[in-house]
User: What shape does this take?
Amino acid sequence: MALRSVTRLFSRRALSTTTVRGYSDEMSFTLASGNQVFYDAKSVKQVDVPSFSGSFGILPKHVPTLAVLKPGVVSVIEDSGNVKKIFVSSGTVTINEDSSVQILAEEAHPVESLDRSAAQEVLSKAQSSMSSASTEQARAEAAIAIEVGEALVKAVE
Assistant: This one.
C-alpha cells in the first residue's frame, strides 16, 4: 500500500508539473551597509566574498545560497573588468534563483579609503581590551574586535 502511494507521487502527471529552475546569464548585484550603498542592482561579472565557511566566488548561475560574511574584503569584478575591493566587518550574502545577489554589511568601506595606522590602532585597542577583559562577555566582544582588527590590517597591507 505504501509503495503505491510513493508510486503515485512519481507518476507522469506529478512529474509534468515539476518546475525547472532557470538561471540568468547576468548577475544583478547589490552591496549596502548602514553608511553607504556601493552597488544597487548593477550587473557585475563576479563577486568574491569572505565567509565563515571559507571564501567563495559568485558567478551568474550560482546556486541559491545564504551565507554569513566574516570580516574581510569583498572583491567585485565589474562588467568593464575593473576590480573594486570593499572591506566588510560582517553581514550576510543572499544569492537568489534569478542570479541576483545581495550583500548586507554591518559596516563597509572601500579598501583605498582605509588608513594603515588607524587599522593598526583598532587592532591594538582590541588586543588591550582582551587582556583586561574580566567577564566572558567582555572576552567574546574583544575576540570579535580582534578578528575585525586583524582583517582590517590585512586589507591595508
